[in-house]
Amino acid sequence: MKKGQTSVEGIFVIGAIFLMFLFILGYGFNKRIDNQNAEKFVSQRDTCIKISNLIIGAFINGNGTEIISDSEYEFDLLNNSRLIGIYSLKEKGFSSDYAEADVVFCTVPINAFPSRLVHAGEFKVKNVGDFVDVTYVI
Amino acid sequence: MLPMLSKKGQVQSLDLFISATVFIILLITLILVWDNFSKRLDTKLAYEDLSEKAIKITDLLVETRGVPDKWEDDADKVNVIGLVSNDRVLSNNKIEEFIDMEYDDVKELFNIEAYDFYFRIIDSNGAIIQVDDNDVELGNKPGLSSKFVITIQRIVLNGGSEVVLEFTLWE
User: Which domain, by its residues, includes A30?
Assistant: First the structure.
């Protein structure tokens, strides 16, 4: 046997280790994307629940209740389906941006609020005669 | 007589086997823990979702009169169900109309079509109270196979005495 020669077993072992690390790299990369998506989803869901709570809070507290809050994301109020949809967009976009954005929905057990798109930033929730108006504050 | 084999450059196969086994076991454990974490997060979110819906619904029931204000006069036109005449003071007329409503209509109004619910009002002894000779209860009770069950209890006044309004939301 010549000095410095690698045996077949050696090559096999190096190949196996290389494949294993390749697998770990791929798996880790996938998990990283999963985690980023989960983080984004949880953040959008938190915003959705916050807005839903504000609407219910204003409704329960009665006529004249006014709350100022803010949202990191653009959101849609859908009174017919009693839903709030939070877009993954953090600023005003074109209609194609809204169509392509990820949306997280949450429910509201009332329909006494308007159907409208509200932009990211400060917004006002106001109970006017048991109807909860939600408007973007410029 | 066998020729003497050189030990130079030989891989210690037993050592290699042990280290590879340990490495694979650790890798599998890591993958399982990671996957379990995702499942636990999903379960936690689903449970939180259910709790949040149940709390909001009971808030509406015990703190609002509903929309329209006198929805009990024409229950077909109800937009929001509320069971009180004043904050936490139950209205028998509203309760009567509520327990007569269709289960699916109530689910639609509360926007909980994906779940089931059970509603009742009990006295301090745990017995279901009656309004106009009818037990105050509505919906389906959760079974042993129910995945998630959340019950919210709120103390309210009915005819001057304290009773417990109980709302169970389950999947």
Answer: 8-136
